[in-house]
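Per your request, structure below.
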């Protein structure tokens, strides 16, 4: 499994998420921290040349800590490598773990860049789960998830492993969150909240 340590993009994501959770605009946070709105915009965008001192002021205003502890899991890379091997059993577990981690740990766990997944149905599933998790934590979905197209035919991730009867499909449809249903992805909410 590949992971990443602290980088400018990760810090920017955390700052943007924390600012939005507080309901502040960039201008409001910039004034509060005593920095320019342009600086804050660059910082949230992950530009690596941001002043460390000013960055620490912004982090402190948001009560955020960024540590150099163990690197965070990069779910985008995990999905890319798992699906390139055709390991649908692990991919199904990974969907649930991804959803749960975003709900428990917040938007910083979300996949922010479009994954390179050839299986378009799985890409739709991942986008749908990202939209669902963003709604759960009160965050905006990343652009790639917003721009993703629905699966061309009904996508039941568990059906990649086992055939499903019509009665089971009806049950899954009834218990699928609207964010998934709108992407033609069918998975029970309870399967998204436990890994």
């Amino acid at each position: 499994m590949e992971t990443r340590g602290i980088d400018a993009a990760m810090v920017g994501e955390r700052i943007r998420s924390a600012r939005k959770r507080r309901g502040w605009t960039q201008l409001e946070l910039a004034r509060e921290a005593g920095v320019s709105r342009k600086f804050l915009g660059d910082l949230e965008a992950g530009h690596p040349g941001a002043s460390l001192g000013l960055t620490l002021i912004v982090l402190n205003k948001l009560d955020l800590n960024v540590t150099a502890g163990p690197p965070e899991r990069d779910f985008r890379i995990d999905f890319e490598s798992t699906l390139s091997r055709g390991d649908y059993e692990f991919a199904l577990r990974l969907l649930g773990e991804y959803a749960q981690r975003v709900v428990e740990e917040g938007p910083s766990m979300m996949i922010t860049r479009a994954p390179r997944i050839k299986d378009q149905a799985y890409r739709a599933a991942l986008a749908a789960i990202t939209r669902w998790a963003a709604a759960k934590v009160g965050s905006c979905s990343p652009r790639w998830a917003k721009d993703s197209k629905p699966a061309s035919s009904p996508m039941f991730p568990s059906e990649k492993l086992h055939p499903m009867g019509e009665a089971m499909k009806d049950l899954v449809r009834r218990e699928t969150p609207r964010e998934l249903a709108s992407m033609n992805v069918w998975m029970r909410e309870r399967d998204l909240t436990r890994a």
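The chain has a mean pLDDT of 86.

Regards,
D.
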